[in-house]
Amino acid sequence: MRSILPGAMLGLLGGGQLGRMFAMAAHQMGYQVTVLDSDPDSPAGRIADQFICAEYTDRAALQRLGKQCAAITTEFENIPAAALAQLSEFCIVSPDAKSVSIAQNRISEKQFLQANNFSIASFAIIEQAGQFRNFTNSIAGLFPGILKVSQFGYDGKGQKHVNNEAELSTAFVEMKSVPCVLEKKVPLKCEVSVVLTRGGDGKMVCFPVVENQHMNGVLDISIVPARVSAETAKQALEIAGNVADTLNYRGVLCVEFFLLEDGQLVINEIAPRPHNSGHFSIDACITSQFEQQVRALCELPLGNTALHKPSVMVNLLGDLWQNGEPDWLLVLQQPSTKLHLYGKRAARPGRKMGHFTVLGETADQALTKALHIKRVIESN
C-alpha cells in the first residue's frame, strides 16, 4: 500500500483527549484532521480542521467523513463495529471493525484470548440471573471475584466486587441484568502494560513496559520502565506482540497485564487504541504513541520508541478542581516536569482532566518527585 503523505485529511472517530492528542501529533506532521463526535464542544473537535457533530450511527455523517478522508482511525473502542465497516468502503480504517468488535466486548475478548491459549484469570459469563456459562472453574471457585459489564465499562465503572452467589445476584441486578463477566480475583503483585504499534505490513514496535498503579479503578500513576525483572519485561513484550499478530491488528494497541505473586503474567484486557498508560511517550520517548498512530494509519515507517529518560506520569482528575482551578505553577516550576491539560470545560470527580510527566535519572527518582508534586497540588 502507498504511504499517505502530509497534507492529506485524516479522519477521527471520537472527540476526547486521546483524539485531541492524535490531532496534535497529526498537525505537527503536516496532516489535516476531521473529527466526528456527538459533543459540539469536544476537546478534539475544537482543534480539528473540520468537525462533524453527529452520532457514530449516523450513516450520512459517516459517508461524509469517509468521502473526505484518506484514512480514518478511532480514539476509543466503543465505536460501533458497523460504523467502521461502513467507513472501510471509502478508505483505510485502522484499527478495523473485526479487531474493535473483539476488544470492545469483554465476553468476546475473553473468548478470543482463551481460544488462542493466552493466559487469563478464571472467569464465567453471566447472562441471566442465577445462571452462568462455565469455562474454567465451578462458579464457587470464582469467589472472591469481580463482576464486570461486558460493554461500555471503563475506569472502574461497571464493576462490582462479589464474595458469594448472593452478592453476585444482587450485583447483576444492580447492573441492569446486562451480560457480564465474573472474573476471579488473582493474587496480584502489580499491574503492567505494553503499548505497541503494528503496521499494515505486520512490522511491530513496542514501547518500554509500564508499571501502573490505580486508585478507585482509575489509573493514577504510570512508572517507566516498569520495576520488574528483565525476564518479566521480555515476556510481557512477547505476549503483547503475539496478541497483536493473532488479531492481525493494525494501529496502536495496549495489552494490560496482572503480574501475579508467583511471577506469572495474565492478560487483564486489551485496548485497541492509544492508552492512558502510554502518555509518558509524548515527553519521554523519541516517538510518541500518537505519532505512531499517525504513522501506522498512513503506512509510514514506524518511529523509534527509545526512552530518553525514565519517567512517571500522574493523572489529574476533576477532584482537584473542587476549590477552583489548581495552581499550575506548582507543576510548571519543576524544570523536568511536563504539564498536559485536555481542554475539558467541566471538571467532575473522577474525570480525567490532564496529566503531568516527570523525567528523572531513574524510575524511583522520578517517582519520588512525582509523588511530591502530587501531594503539593492535592493539599493546596
Query: Which regions have little confidence, pLDDT < 50, spanning 5+ residues?
Result: none
Number of helices: 11
Number of strands: 19
The major β-sheet equals:
9 strands, antiparallel
H and E string: EHEEHEHEHHEEEEHEEEEEHEEHHEHEEH
Task: Describe the structure using short key phrases.
380 residues; globular; 11 helices; 28% strand; 28% helix; nine-stranded antiparallel sheet
Can you tell me about this structure?
- It is a single chain.
- It is built from 11 helices and 19 strands.
- The chain is α+β, with helices and mostly antiparallel strands and 380 residues long.
- Strand 1 (9-13), helix 1 and strand 2 (32-37) form a beta-alpha-beta unit.
- Helix 1 crosses helix 9 (289-297) and helix 3 runs antiparallel to helix 4.
- The longest helix is centred in the middle third of the chain and has 18 residues, at 230-247.
SSE layout:
Elements: E1 9-13, H1 17-28, E2 32-37, E3 50-53, H2 59-68, E4 71-74, H3 81-87, E5 92-93, H4 97-103, H5 106-115, E6 123-126, E7 133-134, E8 145-149, E9 159-162, H6 165-174, E10 180-184, E11 188-198, E12 204-206, E13 210-215, E14 218-224, H7 230-247, E15 251-260, E16 265-271, H8 281-284, H9 289-297, E17 311-317, H10 329-332, E18 337-341, E19 352-359, H11 363-379
Parallel strand pairs: 1-2, 1-4, 2-3, 4-5
Antiparallel strand pairs: 6-7, 6-10, 8-9, 8-10, 11-12, 11-13, 11-15, 13-14, 14-17, 15-16, 17-19, 18-19
